[in-house]
Amino acid sequence: MSVTERVLFSMVANRALAPSSKLAAADWVTHDVHVDGLPATDDDACYRAMDWLHEVQDDLEKRVFDEVSNLLNLEVDLLFFDTTSTYFELEEADEPVTRDDKGRLLPAADDTPADADDSGDAPDQAGFRTFGKFKDSRDDLPQIVIGMAVTRDGIPVRVWSWPGNTGDQKLIRQVKDDMRDWTLSQIVWVTDRGFSSERNRRYLRQGENAYIVGEKLRSGSPEVKAALSRQGRYGEIAQNMRVKEVRISDTERFVHVILCWLALLLIRITETTTGATWPTVRRELDRLHLGTFTGPTGLFRQVTTLTKPQTDLLASTSPHRSRSSPSNPHPADQHEHQHLEKRLSGALTHVRAGQTQIRDSVPLNYAERRSRGAAGCTAAETPPRCPQEALLSPTYDVIVIGLGGMGSAAAHHLSAGGARVLGLEKFGPVHNRGSSHGGSRITRQSYFEDPAYVPLLLRAYELYDDLHRATGREIAIRSGGVMVGHPGSLAVSGSLQSARQWDLPHELLDAKELRRRFPTFTPRDDEVALYERKAGLLRPEHTVAAHLQLATRQGADLHFEEPMTRWEPYRDGVRVHTAENTYTAGQLVVCPGAWAPQLLTDLGVPFTIERQVMYWFQPKNGVEPFLPGNHPIYIWEDSQGAQVYGFPAIDGPALGAKVAFFSKGEVTTPETIDRTVYDHEVQDMADHMSRCIPDLPGTFLNAATCMYSSTPDENFVIARHPAHPDSVTVACGFSGHGFKFVPVVGEILADLALTGTTEHPIGLFDPARLAAAPAPA
Question: Which pTM does this prediction carry?
Answer without folding.
Answer: 0.55
